[in-house]
Amino acid sequence: MAYDPSIYRGSAAHYRIGRPPYAPQLDDALREAAALDGAGRLLDVGCGPGTLILRLARYFHEAVGVDPDGDMLLEARAAADAADPANVRWVQAVAEDLPLAAPGPYRLVTFGQSFHWTDESRVAEAVYDMLEPGGMMALVGHAAAGRPVPRNPGAPPIPHAELEALVTRFLGSTRRAGLGTAALRTRTAQDLLSDTRFGQAEVVVVPGIPDLIRDSDSIVAGYLSMSWSAPHLYGSRLHQFTDQAHQILDSADPDGMFWDWAGDTEIVVARRRNGVAAEGPT
Ligand SMILES: C[S@@+](CC[C@H](N)C(=O)[O-])C[C@H]1O[C@@H](n2cnc3c(N)ncnc32)[C@H](O)[C@@H]1O
Questions:
Q1: What average pLDDT does the segment 265-279 reach?
Q2: How far apart are CA 143 and CA 147, in angstroms?
Q3: Domain ranges (residues) in the chain
Q4: What residue's CA is closest to ligand 1, atom 10?
Q5: Ligand 1, from 7, 64, 67, 110: best to mutate by most atoms within 8 Å of Cβ?
Q6: Does residue 279 register a pLDDT over 80?
Q7: Ligand 1: residues within 6 Å at CB?
Q8: What CATH number should be reported for the domain whose range is 12-271?
Q9: In the predicted model, is pLDDT for residue 22 greater than 70?
């Protein structure tokens, strides 16, 4: 699919505050799975505001974040300034421009909720060649469907049904994405990878945060961070949407504090199988 630069237009500023974090044990799971020891290089594709790369950079000699959205990269740079990792650099590019945009070799290539935005098979094959021998690709995301829900920690759950109905009233029932509508996925990433040189991928599940409590502002920001509810889609009615979203939250809980269960964190792990070194400068 061709990249549409408007998919997250206006979302970047809401992303860090609005999205629930990945599982705390994600770092350990990746360290173990990819045998990370402080050496080698990380490539984080579709890095957004630096969510994954700024957690993981410390386990590498160098880390490279790639994203086509300039506003996301601005947020990432600001977060990096606060966290002060000396070994991170940023590249504005689409995944389809790999390997040229950010040549290998890499020990680990991550995609945090971003692989589905790319021309997946072609990008997977490019990444395969960019991995060092024994290197790994990891597709990271939240997984709630079909998984056990932890015990409610004592705050009301986010009224997603009402909030999503509000989005539908404003934007219609077909999920929007940029200038068009969201593409329907017909295959899982695992299924798709099985037809690439990666072959059979493994799924690792790391327990999510069972007692995450978030306030109304961060919940509304979460909606604005989604491609299907991004600020640009509301046009001049953006404030009407956010006001009505706050009203829904106020009537669900006047204290404005909600339990967010985003699910466990799922990692689809795919490994470079042969021992042939990846090409390209280091
Ligand atoms: C849901 S955000 C994920 C951000 C971050 N990786 C995370 O885990 O929170 C998806 C990101 O993928 C980026 N993206 C969209 N199409 C892309 C493409 N073709 N190549 C690389 N990144 C892309 C978007 O700009 C956005 O920053």
A1: 78
A2: 7
A3: 12-271
A4: 114
A5: 67
A6: no
A7: 3, 8, 19, 45-48, 51-52, 67-69, 72, 94-96, 112-114, 117-118
A8: 3.40.50.150
A9: yes
